[in-house]
Write a structure and sequence with these properties.
Elements (H helix, E strand, L loop, with lengths): L4 H9 L14 E5 L6 H8 L7 E6 L4 H9 L6 E6 L4 H5 L2 E6 L15 H18 L4 E4 L4 H14 L8 E3 L2 H15 L10 E3 L6 E3 L13 H12 L1 H8 L8 H18 L6 E7 L7 E9 L2 E5 L7 H26 L1
Parallel strand pairs: 1-2, 1-4, 2-3, 4-5, 5-6
Antiparallel strand pairs: 7-8, 9-10, 10-11
Helix pairs in contact: 2-10, 5-6, 6-11
The protein binds 1,4-dihydronicotinamide adenine dinucleotide.
């Protein structure tokens, strides 16, 4: 435990409080789709997380054990194992308390997230089926797009298997929050890490609703046309990256960063830290849809509380109303697919 002391101090610097000993820190995290554009940088960051004891990297790509071997040389205490192909999936999942899923196809220029549905729906369904049997209590963080449909699919699969806990199936929308903080930080001329902007609704196009009226510190923009422009930039920021990568993928590095941040929030909750807040796309009754992105807190069982979104202004109310039919449609598509 002496060798682990520096690890505890890193954990404390990162805001992870109230741990008595390092020996309690035994959390296994599985990354499904670990060989991909998101999976690799995400795993690189998770290998540096002091709250993780074992990182299991799974992908259908044949080079997955190589990614694990590469990462295992980092001088951090996290054990890394590589698992390739469906026959090794259960090994990766067994004893995992957190499962992060970035497996699946990303967008190419001209595609919407919904265009990925046909390919990614069966990937997420099949992976969730294995989670239901190998680690039914794990907290599942879904990065695969379209998130608005993948969370309902995973939830229905867990329901069918009789192991569904809505607090443990979370859609990752953190990149929308990270982008909002970055853009408002630029506008206000401050460190973006000090900016907090809740983003609600869903995770695609018009369903991404940044609550700029609740920005802390307040966003300097006051002109409604400029607010509208910034809102649209946040909604289309993913497409900005897809276009710039010109057919070679979508956001991977910023998503790896965001996924690692979201995973850290889950881990801090698991360790008993209070008041850890992030937005996520979850089952809740805030809107007419069954699932909705909202600020939540984390606890020992995944999502602890749905914080809701408080008071929103007229403009935000309008874009939220406009987004609801699309969000409802995305959710229905996922539910129907899983029920087939
Ligand atoms: P990528 O194509 O670079 O990597 C995907 C990986 O998934 C590949 O290594 C592939 O072998 C693997 N894979 C495919 N089927 C699998 C299966 N059945 N089991 C395990 N692994 C499997 O794609 P990238 O850029 O990493 O994106 C992954 C997903 O994340 C896409 O659906 C993308 O749209 C989504 N995404 C989500 C964001 C969010 O904010 N939630 C942001 C950016 C991307």
């Amino acid at each position: 435990s002496r060798a682990l002391k520096p690890v505890v101090s890193v954990a404390l610097q990162n805001g992870a409080k109230n741990f008595s000993t390092t020996s309690e820190m035994k959390i296994k995290v599985a990354v499904l789709g670990a060989g991909g554009g998101i999976g690799q940088p995400l795993s690189l960051l998770l290998k540096q997380n002091p709250l993780i004891s074992h990182l299991a990297l799974y992908d259908i790509a044949p080079f997955t054990p190589g990614v694990a071997a590469d990462l295992s040389h980092l001088d951090t205490p996290v054990k890394v194992t590589g698992h390739k192909g469906p026959e090794q999936l259960c090994d990766a999942l067994t004893d995992s308390e957190v499962v992060v899923i970035p497996a699946g196809m990303p967008r190419k220029p001209g595609m919407t997230r919904d265009d990925l549905f046909n390919t990614n729906a069966s990937i997420v369904r099949d992976l969730t089926l294995c989670i239901a049997s190998c680690c039914p209590k794990a907290i599942i963080a879904i990065i695969t797009n379209p998130v608005n449909s993948m969370v309902p699919i995973a939830s229905e699969v867990m329901k069918k298997a009789g192991v569904y806990d809505p607090n443990r199936v979370l859609g990752v929308t953190t990149l929308d929050i990270v982008r909002s903080s970055t853009f408002v930080g630029e506008i206000n001329g401050v460190d973006p890490r000090t900016v907090k902007v809740p983003v609600i609704g869903g995770h695609s196009g018009i369903t991404i609703i940044p609550l700029l009226s609740q920005s802390q510190p307040p966003c300097k923009l006051t002109d409604p046309a400029q607010i509208d422009k910034l809102t649209k930039r946040i909604q289309e920021a993913g497409t900005e990256v897809v276009k710039a990568k010109a057919g070679f993928g979508s956001a991977t590095l910023s998503m790896g960063y965001s996924g690692a941040r979201f995973c850290n929030a889950i881990l801090r909750g698991l360790k008993g830290e209070q008041n850890v807040v992030e937005c996520a796309f979850v089952k809740c009754s805030l809107a007419e849809s069954e699932y909705f992105a909202t600020p939540i807190t984390f606890g020992k069982n995944g999502m602890d509380k749905v914080l809701g979104y408080g008071k929103i202004n007229e403009y935000e109310q309008k874009i939220l109303s406009q987004a609801m039919p699309e969000l409802l449609k995305n959710i229905k598509k996922g539910v129907e697919f899983a029920k087939k």
